[in-house]
Design goal:
By secondary structure, the protein is an alpha+beta fold. Helix content is 48%, strand content 21%. It folds into three domains: 2-111, Alpha-Beta Plaits (2-Layer Sandwich), CATH 3.30.70.1050; 150-246, Chitinase A, domain 3; 253-441, Trigger factor, domain 2. The strands form three sheets. Strands 6, 7, 8, 9 and 10 form a five-stranded antiparallel sheet that branches. The chain is elongated and about 110 Å long.
Length: 442
């Protein structure tokens, strides 16, 4: 076997494989002999059909099978000799196959491109000190109290105010005719939260239970609800009931419903620690993202198109995973692909950089780590564990584990400096921006 490798681009190679005529003849003769044993022709005993007849009848079939067999058998060895690890075969072009002649085939394939890594140890990262204020602790405690609040009917006949919950019956009319799809009974909403049209809230705040109101509503032509867009509606409503939110007292009875806390002070300390840990996670993510951004900006890579396309498909699948097939057919996926391509390219670039650093530093994923992830995925998807043990899934898990380890390594080797917050940075620190981004993802 002779091989020749031509570099088309940093991410593409053309592999030419030439097989000697002796190997070609052996394959063709073997196939003809097999065909002769299996042939059943009138006037000839099994296995006794003349080879000249076999060749005249089955030549095309034998040649096609020989091409397939020769490529399948020799291609892995050719890759090994050429020291190529293809991402994807783009095209296999077999040459003509004849007896007593060499056979050549050409494979165009994509490979992980060679590129130079910038210095990746000791990257300087500035962060602000982690601080937890009493106000933040108080806000978190109030959030928990809000979650466990009870709604109590307001007995005294007082005017409604923001924060109250109202129970309404209403019916919408257009040109004096009732609208069948614009009515409700025992509809509950919280005042002051924008849950109702502003005109309705204006009439309700200050009103009392039992009162009836007529509110005029006018919806713009571009209103998101097409059935209401551009319509003028007269809403007849009755205030049936009002409720107020009663927050639990911050005492030992309340904190015991949230965990094993002995005193209110212990509870406050635990809340303080939880907030601090969340901020540490946000800062940790910021540091890793900053380092990775620095590396991607300083690295030039000719990206393999197949990896970019694969990343794009993953992004689209995640973006539209909850859409129905009918809705998906109506989407302009090519438009979304174009918009997402820069992000996909950055993701691929980052993965290639992390992969190369992993090789440089001998960072790997252990079998038990991969197995643990497989078990977790199987539990979450409620499928048998064996169903998850497929090469594609294992490869993805292994890549993710290695990527996380490399980022942890880069953070450990970075020069992290704490600097005081700048007073003019009113829009928040970079760490806060990362937190906001992560919250949006969730």
């Amino acid at each position: 076997m002779e091989i020749h490798v031509e570099e088309i681009s940093p991410a593409k190679r053309k592999l030419e494989v030439t097989l000697p005529k002796e190997e070609v003849n052996a394959e063709i003769n073997s196939l003809y002999q097999d065909m002769r044993r299996r042939a059943r022709l009138k006037g000839f005993r099994p296995g006794k059909v003349p080879m000249s007849i076999i060749k005249s009848l089955y030549k095309d079939q034998v040649i096609a099978t020989a091409i397939h067999n020769l490529i399948e058998r020799t291609y892995p060895e050719a890759l090994k000799k050429a020291q190529l690890q293809p991402i994807k075969e783009r095209n296999i072009e077999p040459g003509a196959l004849k007896e007593d002649d060499e056979f050549e085939y050409i494979v165009t394939l994509e490979v992980i491109p060679e590129f130079e890594l910038p210095p990746y140890k000791g990257i300087e990262v500035e962060v602000t000190p982690i601080e937890v204020t009493e106000k933040e602790v108080e806000a978190e405690i109030n959030r928990l109290r809000e979650m466990h609040a009870e709604l109590k009917t307001i007995e005294e006949p007082r005017p409604l105010k923001a924060g109250d919950y109202v129970v309404l019956d209403f019916q919408g009319y257009q040109d004096g005719k009732p609208l069948g799809n614009f009515k409700a009974q025992d509809y509950m909403a919280e005042l002051g939260k924008g849950q109702l049209h502003e005109n309705i809230e204006k009439e309700l705040i200050g009103a009392k239970v039992g009162e009836e109101k007529i509110v005029k509503l006018e919806y713009p032509k571009d209103f998101q609800n097409k059935e209401l867009a551009g319509k003028k509606i007269e809403l007849h409503l009755k205030i049936k009931e009002a409720k107020e939110k009663i927050l639990p007292e911050l005492d030992e009875d309340f904190i015991k419903t949230l965990g094993d806390y002995k005193t209110v002070e212990d509870f406050k300390k635990a809340i303080y620690q939880q907030i601090k840990e969340k901020k540490e996670i946000v800062r940790d993510e910021y540091v890793k993202n900053y380092i990775l951004t620095q590396l991607t900006e300083k690295t030039e890579i000719d990206l393999p198109e197949s990896l970019v396309e694969e990343e794009l498909e993953d992004m689209l699948n995640r973006a539209f995973q909850f859409t129905t097939p009918e809705v998906r057919k109506k989407l302009d996926l090519e438009k979304y692909k174009k918009e997402l391509r820069p992000t996909a390219e950055q993701k691929v670039k980052a993965k290639l950089i992390l992969g190369k650093i992993a090789k440089e530093e001998n960072i790997t994923a252990e079998k038990d780590e991969i197995e643990e992830e497989l078990k977790l995925m199987a539990e979450n998807l409620k499928v048998p564990l064996e169903q998850m043990r497929v090469p594609y899934v294992i490869s993805r898990i292994e890549s993710r584990i290695i990527g996380e380890k490399v980022l942890a390594f880069l953070k450990e080797k970075a020069e992290i400096k704490e600097v005081e917050k700048k007073e003019e940075a009113k829009e928040g620190t970079k760490e806060e921006e990362v937190k906001e981004t992560e919250e949006k993802k969730e």
